[in-house]
Design goal:
Structural class: mainly beta
Helix content: under 10%
Number of helices: 7
Shape: elongated
Distance between the termini: 76 Å
Radius of gyration: 34 Å
Strand content: over 45%
Number of strands: 54
Length: about 850
Amino acid sequence: MNFKFHVLLILPFFWAINSLHAQKNKQKDSIQLRDLFVLLEKKHEIKFSYNDKLIKNKFVENSFIKLPLNKVLDKVAINFKLKFEKITERYITVSKSGKLYQISGNIFDKKDKKPIQGASVVSLRRNKGVISNENGFFKLSNLIEGDKVEVSFIGYDTKTLIVNEELTSEQLSLILSESTTLLEEVLVSDYMVGGIDKKTDGSLVISPKKLGTVSGLTEPDILQSVQLLPGINSPDETASGLFIRGGTPEQNLILFDGIKMYNSSHFFGMISAFNPYIVDKVKVFKSGASAEYGNHTSGVIDIETNKEIPKSFNGGFGVNMTHFDAFMNIPISKKIGISLSGRRSFTDVFKTNTFNRLSKKVFQNSIISRNESVGTELYDSKNDFYFFDVNSKLTYKPSSKDIITFNYLLVRNKLNYVFNTKNSNRYITEDDLQIKNTGIRTMWERKLGNNSILRTNFYSSTYDLNYEYNGSFDYGSPYTQKALKSNIIKDLGFKSVFEKKLNEKSSFLTGYEFSNNSVSYSIERGVKSTISSTKYKIADSGNNNSHAWFFNYGFNNYKKTIVNVGVRTNYFTLSDKVYFAPRIYFQQQLLPNLSFKTSFEFKQQNIGRLLEVHTSDFGLENEVWLLIDNEELPILRNKQYTFGAIYKANGLTFDIDYYRKYSKGVTSATKATEGNIRGFYQGTSKVDGVDVLLKKSINNYNTWVNFSYSKSRYIFDEVNNGKFFSTNFDTTNSFLWAHNLNLGNFSFSLAWVWKTGTPYSPVERIENNGNLVLGDLNSKRLPAYHKMDLSSSYSFNFDKNKKWKGKIGISLLNLYDRTNYLRRSYSSVWDGTKYSIQQSEQLSLGMTPNLVLRIFIK
C-alpha cells in the first residue's frame, strides 16, 4: 500500500519534468506568433492590426517564415481559427474566425446536364482550391463564414458562392453555362434535325457528333452536310463546289481551327477534306457575318475542333467504300491533352464499285475518259489515285483561366495516269497531279475576369498544286511534249481578339488581324523533236500584306430585340487602298413566336481564282489562284441586303429570307462564264433570291422542306449586247423534302431533291475557221434535275459497360438512277475536210451505294 502511495506521489513530479522538457524543445523549434508577424512585416513590407489576446502564448514552426505569404496566413488561420482581411495593399487585420466550414457537391453542364471534370473551386481568401473529378464532384474545407468561393471552367461563366451555414448544410448541385458571347446564344435548337442550331447572330451551327442520319451519306461529311441548309447549293454535285446565295466557291471563307483553307476537298471535290469525328462544331454564315471575318465576299464556314482536354482516352476507327480512318483523344495529364486523326483512301490498291461510280463522274470529259473510249485492244492504261489527311492538336491548360493549343493539318491528293500503246513505245503519255494544303496554328485564350476573354492566333497555311505532263511519240519522226503547271500560296497570319460581356444584354469584341499572302503560278508547255523545238512559259507572283481593324457590338434583350453591328477596316498593300466593311444584323420580336429580321453587309476580297486554258486539255483543275492588285484585276467588292421572318411554335419552324447581292470586280475568266466568252472583261453581278425552311417535329420524326429561289446574273459592257445573262451555275429553283426517323438504335433518312436545270448557250452556226457563233448567252436550260437519296444506320454496344460501341450504315445516292445533266457545252471538231459542231455534256452520279462500319471506344 505504501509502495503504491509513493508511486502516485512521484508520477506528477515526473510528468511535470517531462512537460517542462517538451515545452523547452517546442520553444526551441518554434517562434511566437507575435514574432512571426514582426518578421513577416519586415519581409513583405506589410502591417498587421490585431488584439494581443488573440495571439498570446501561440507558437508556430520556424519553417513558416520560409513559406509564401498566402500559405503562411492560410496555415495560421486554420491552426488558430483566425481570419485575415486585407484592408489595403499594405494593411491586414487579424480577427477571430469562428467556425470552420466545408462545402461539397457536383458541377454540371447546363445544356446537356453532364458532369464537368476539371472545374476549379477556389477560396478567394486563401487562394487555394480543388479540381472536380470525372463525376463533377468536389470538396473544399477550412472555410469561414463570409468567404467567397469561385467556381470556374474554361468556356463557362464563373459562379461565385458566399459561405454560410445554409450553403454548407447539404450537397450542392452547381450548374455552369457555356461562356460564349451573347451573339452566339441559341435562337432555334434542332433547326432541321438534331445537331443543327440557329444562333441569335444569324449563323447556323452544325455539330457533327450530334447530327442525325443525313440522306445519301453514311457519315456526316462536313461540306455535304452544309448543303442541307437552304440557300447553299452545289450545282456540280461536289462537296466543295458550294454556291452560297449565288456566290462562287472561291468567294467563300473556309477556316479550320483558324487556318485558311484553299483546298477543302478530296477526289476533285467529291469528299470533304475534314474528318467529321474530330470536329466539334461548324458555324455557317450566309449573310451578316461578324466583322471578325474578312477577305471574302460570300459565305463563311468556320470549322472548330474540341478545345477541351479529354477526361479519359477515347477514339474510334472505321471504313467505308472509299477510305478508312482513325482518331483518338488522349489525356496526358489534367493540364495536357492530345488529339490525333488520319484518313486515307485505298483506291490505289483496291477499287470498289462506289469508287468506280465516283470516278466515272469525276473523270468524264477529261483526257482520262477520252482515252478510255479508244478501247483496250491497242492501248493500255494505269490510273493510280489516292488521298489522305492527318490532323494533330495539343491542348495545354496552365491554369483555369488559360488555354493554349497547337494544331497541324495536312491534306493531300495525288493522281498518276499513264496511257500507252501495248507492246511498243510508239505512244506513251503520263499525267501527274499533286494537290497539298498544310496548316499550322498556335492559339492562346486568356480569361480576363468573369466577363472578358482575349484570344490570340498565329497561323500558317500553304497551298501547293503541281501538274506535269510528259508525252513521247514515234510516228516515223519521234518527238516529245511536256507541260508543267504550279500554283503556290503561302499565307501567314496573326489575329488578336478581345471580347467583353458588358452586362446580361450586351457585349462587344474588337481586334486586329494581319496576314501576308504570297501567291505565284507558272505554266510551261513545249515540243521537242530531232528537227526543232518550241517552248513558252507564263508566270507571275505577288505579295500582299493585309491589315484589318474590326469592332462588333451585340445587344440581346432576351431574344426580343437582337442587334449585331460591326465595322471592319481593310488595308491591302498591293492596291494601297483602305476599304470599309460595315455590317449589321437586326431581329425584332413582333409576336410571342414570330420575329422580323434584316441584315446588311459590305465586303472586299483581294484573292481570286481564274480559269487558265493552257492545260485545259487535261480536263481537271484548270483554275489558278491569283492576288488582285486593283489594276489588271479589280478588288472584288460585294454588298448584300436581307429581309425575313422566323416563326417557331409546337415543333413547327418556318424561316424565310429575301436577299439581294451586288458584286463589282467580277471577271469573264471564271467558271461562271466558261465556254461563253472569248477575251477578258470586267463587270458586275447581281443575285436576287428567297430561302424558305418549313420544318415539323413529331416525337422521333422530323420532316422539313427547303425551297430556294435564286437568280444569278453577270453583265459586261462588251458582251451579250451589254445585257445581263445567267451564270453557268444559276439554279433558279431548288426544292428539297427530307424525312428523318429514329427508332431505338435504328435511324432512317430519306430526301427528294428537285432543281431547275442549269443554263447553256445555244450555237447559231460554225464559221469556216472553226469558230462557234453563239446565240444569247445562257438563254437555254437543261432538263430539270431530280433524285432521291436514302440512308440508314444501326448503333450497338459490344459490352455492358458501353465502352465499345459500333455502327453500321448504308446509303444510296440517286435511288432510282436518274440521268441528270449538269452542264452542256459545244466545241468545233476538224475531221480532215471540214469543221463540225460537237456537243458534250457532264452527267450526274448514277445510283451509288456506300457502306460504313465504325467502332467507337470510350
